[in-house]
Specification:
Radius of gyration: 20 Å
Structural class: alpha/beta
Largest sheet: 8 strands, parallel, barrel
Order of helices and strands: EHEHHEHHEHHEHEEHEHEHH
Mean pLDDT: 97
Number of helices: 12
Bound molecules: ligand 9MR
Shape: globular
Low-confidence stretches: none
Number of strands: 9
């Protein structure tokens, strides 16, 4: 019989928000609005959803001035009908596939570009403010580089069209705040959990924003992590730096890949999801959630969201296709391909319940 983590409902084990990214029209097989198994696992364990794709830029305004809210509305309304909030993702993101063409090919002035960007933000945030259950936004996603030292990312339509300037970041936050005075506004990024030069740049940006009253409420740590990387010490140290700025910390996109195509690969390849791998992953999930609880004081906890429901629908299998020789060997989430609990779910719950993290 299938493994049970003996968790009735993850969200009931804690006061902070427990969320999950879901698919919609972007991945029809797993569409949260039509797949009964998706609905069941989401409604059982979570109290907040993030749209994995459908609230990104071009999904909402592909053609300048034409906003298409049909899919996003159906999703946000479904959340509301189940007493769930939505974490809005993402108002501004450079990643090519979802930047509207009219922005990529912008030939007007940078001032007019900023105005167009603000119109994008204002229209979308206003629209969802009326629904009332979009609790927070990733206002700007991934605007910092992975170089040493880290800088503002320059390979970005927003940076380029703003006149080779990072001014778009603060303008985005100001526009979001004007439209949503009560909604929590996050800057969201990956690798900042490594306590590395990117973390340093993040804190520099936050310090500057606070000195100039640019409205930012929190930092989203994506946390697409591995079994041994980054270390818990670095994760905690990085979060502590944000806590010390008085901001909220939200883990926005948590998943823990069993295989790491960057470290020792392929010598260290885990070829099948053995019991030992499952239990090591249980311990890792527990340690990450425990680090969050230990480091972030309750009033500053924006919550933890996992980036997907089942291993069958993880973004990692697509990303690491080549690195993983087209094998689906990341197994990064809390539920297996058949929606059964994994030990990882028990590990997450152990941390919430103050139970020692073990691989037993
Ligand atoms: O999960 C998303 C996947 O379906 C998309 O193909 C991908 C496109 O780059 O974006 C994934 O989500 C990303 C998120 O929006 C931002 N942080 C990184 C996530 C994983 O790439």
């Amino acid at each position: 019989s299938a493994y049970s983590a003996n968790v009735n409902s993850l969200r009931e084990l804690t006061d902070f928000t427990i969320g999950v990214a879901v698919s919609n029209s972007d991945s029809p097989t797993y569409n949260i609005l039509s797949n009964a198994s998706e609905k069941a696992v989401v409604e059982k364990h979570f109290e907040q959803m993030t749209a994995g794709n459908i609230m990104k830029m071009r999904y909402l305004q592909n053609v300048q001035g034409t906003f298409t809210f049909t899919n996003a509305d159906a999703f946000v309304d479904y959340a509301k009908s189940k007493n769930m909030t939505v974490h809005g993702h993402a108002l501004v993101w450079h990643s090519d596939y979802q930047v509207p063409d009219f922005m990529k090919t912008w030939s007007g002035s940078s001032a007019d570009f900023i105005t167009a960007l603000k119109t994008h933000i204002t229209t979308i945030v206003d629209h969802f403010e009326e629904k009332g259950n979009v609790a927070s936004w990733d206002v700007v996603n991934e605007a910092l580089s992975d170089t040493n030292p880290s800088t503002f990312r320059t390979d970005s339509t927003f940076y380029e069209k703003s006149g080779n300037s990072a001014i778009y970041i603060e303008e985005a936050f100001k526009a979001a705040r004007a439209a949503a005075p009560q909604t929590t506004l996050y800057y969201n990024d990956y690798n900042i959990d490594q306590n590395n030069p990117k973390t340093t740049k993040l804190i520099e940006m936050i310090t500057d924003f606070q000195a100039r009253s640019i409205p930012v409420d929190g930092v989203g740590f994506q946390m697409h992590v591995f079994m041994d990387y980054p270390s818990i010490a670095n994760i905690s140290a990085a979060m502590k730096k944000v806590v010390d700025k008085g901001l909220k910390v939200k883990i926005t996109e948590l998943d823990v890949s069993v295989n790491n195509p960057y470290g020792g690969w392929p010598a260290n390849k885990v070829a099948s999801f053995t019991q030992a791998a499952a239990l090591a992953q249980k311990k890792r999930y527990c340690e990450i959630v425990k680090a969050y609880i230990d480091t972030v004081p309750a009033p500053q906890r924006g919550g933890i969201s996992v980036w997907g429901t089942t291993d069958a629908n993880t973004w990692l299998d697509g990303l690491y296709k080549t690195e993983f020789n087209n094998e689906k060997i990341s197994w990064p989430l809390l539920f297996d391909n058949n929606y059964n609990d994994k030990p990882a779910l028990r590990g997450f719950a152990d941390a919430l319940q103050g139970i020692t993290c073990t691989n037993l």
